[in-house]
Structures are given as structure tokens and as C-alpha cells.
Design goal:
Layout (H helix, E strand, L loop, with lengths): L11 E8 L3 H17 L4 H21 L7 E8 L4 E8 L20 H9 L2 E7 L3 E9 L25
Antiparallel strand pairs: 1-2, 2-3, 3-5, 4-5
Helix pairs in contact: 1-2, 2-3
Length: 166
């Protein structure tokens, strides 16, 4: 008799919202993401990290990706079988790719928020967002070993090395 281990079905929760490219839109992105994640089966540590990532990426979309009359898009995808939360913020400025600043602690006008994103996310990167924009994405693993607090430090358990593409 052949028996197989039952597989958990893939449950994918998604949320997408178009927001105005204003400071108010960036703040709303953070608030909406937090409320949405609290309604999903996401651990509180993941929600806390995601809130900070969304705040940084939305602020960057408003400050550096703004085109008059065009908003930015926030998308969240929680894949339960893959145990991953993906955050995407897309804006209209494909010519303005995010670049992390030199080193934390040195005087810089911008780019330091990406160090925060890199420390909180398990992976992050950019991709084109047609017709002329870009999407900055970050992923957080839902595994217990990946739990970190908002300062990027391990929370209770050691964190494995993770890939942070620039």
C-alpha cells in the first residue's frame, strides 16, 4: 500500500492598494499593511518587521519615485506553504533605482532607509514595473529561525545567513 505524506495546501493571501504619492499616502500604506497582516496568520514579529519595511519603501516611493498625477502601488502576498511574506512597492520612476548609502553613521541625504530594509528583510531587490516604473520588493521568511526584532537583531533564536541582493 502506498501512503504519502499529506501536503498542506498552498494558501495565498494577497492585498493590493493604489495610493497617492504623498506623505499621507505613505503613512496610509504602513497603516493598511499593519492592519492587513494582523488579520492574516502572520506572526507578530513578522508584522512588526513588515510595518517598518513598508514605511521605508513607501516613503522612498513618495520621495524618489513620484511622478505628478501618478500614485504608487503596495502589494502584500503571504504564501503559507512557502512560509514567505512578500512586500512590493511600485512607483512610476524606473530611472530612479534605490541605492543604499555608503556606511551607516556617515552624513548622507538618502539611502540609509535601505540599510534598515536590508536588515529586516531576508531578501530584497528591484525589478521593472511596466510601462516605465520600478518595483522594490522585500521578503520575510515566516520560519521561527528567521524571527528578528525591528532593529534587525535575532529575537530569541539565531538567524541564518540570508541573501541581501543590492
Amino acid at each position: 500500500m502506498n501512503t504519502s505524506t499529506p501536503q498542506l495546501p498552498e494558501i495565498q493571501h494577497t492585498f493590493t492598494q493604489l495610493l497617492s504619492s504623498t506623505r499621507r499616502g505613505a503613512r496610509l500604506a504602513r497603516l493598511l499593511a499593519t492592519e492587513q497582516l494582523r488579520s492574516w496568520p502572520a506572526p507578530p514579529s513578522v508584522t512588526e518587521r513588515a510595518e517598518q519595511i513598508v514605511a521605508e519603501l513607501a516613503a522612498n516611493a513618495v520621495l524618489h519615485g513620484r511622478v505628478q498625477g501618478r500614485g504608487f502601488r503596495l502589494a502584500l502576498t503571504l504564501a503559507t506553504a512557502a512560509r514567505t511574506l512578500r512586500i512590493e512597492v511600485a512607483d512610476a520612476r524606473g530611472d530612479q533605482l534605490p541605492v543604499p548609502a555608503g556606511k551607516p553613521g556617515t552624513p548622507q541625504e538618502s539611502g540609509l532607509g535601505l540599510f534598515l530594509v536590508a536588515s529586516l528583510a531576508d531578501r530584497w531587490g528591484t525589478e521593472p514595473y511596466p510601462p516605465s516604473g520600478k518595483c522594490v520588493w522585500a521578503e520575510i521568511d515566516l520560519t521561527p529561525g528567521a524571527a528578528r526584532n525591528i532593529s534587525g537583531q535575532p529575537a530569541d533564536e539565531p538567524v541564518a545567513q540570508h541573501d541581501h541582493p543590492a
